[in-house]
Amino acid sequence: MILFFDNGLLAMGNIMFLCGLALIIGLERTFRFFFQRQKLKGTVAFFGGILVVLLGFPFTGMCIESYGFFIIFSGFFPVAVNFIRRIPVIGNLLNLPGISHVAAKLEGQSRQDFS
């Protein structure tokens, strides 16, 4: 718990995330992914959060990064929720009353569509 908001570890994690993404999909596609017009707000928040972490404010930086991450990858959440619904045990958990409403919001559907 002590190392959870350590500046050095957070900075290394951010660098490793970006390097891993670049190695998986390539440098050009990584650049195009982050700098799309509709994702520019999330990109600024994500990289701004990394900068805030590097400046020595880990909790604030992680909050800003989390917001940017959510904005950048929000288009992927419906695909992920739809995939998770097909997994035997976890898919049943997503159909529980409180969780199904949240999962439907993430998936972009209303609750009546899959009841």
Secondary-structure topology with pairs:
Layout: H1 7-25, H2 27-34, H3 40-55, H4 58-72, H5 77-85, H6 88-93, H7 97-107
Q: Give the mean pLDDT.
A: 86
Measured between the Cα atoms of the first and last residue, the distance is 41 Å
Q: Sheet bearing the most strands, described?
A: none
The radius of gyration over CA amounts to 17 Å
Could you say which overall geometry the principal axes of the C-alpha atoms support? Answer: globular
Low-confidence stretches: 110-115
Helix fraction? over 70%
Helix/sheet category: mainly alpha
Strand tally: 0
Strand content: under 5%
Which series of helices and strands comes N to C? HHHHHHH
Give the number of helices. Answer: 7
Describe the fold and architecture:
The protein has 115 residues and is mainly α. Helices cover 73% and strands 0% of the residues. The chain is built from 7 helices and no strands. α3 packs antiparallel against α4. The protein is globular. It starts with 6 loop residues before the first helix and ends in an 8-residue tail after the last helix. Mean pLDDT is 86; it is low at 110-115.
Summarize the structure.
This protein is mainly alpha-helical and 115 residues long. Helix content is 73%, strand content 0%.
Keywords:
115 residues; mainly alpha
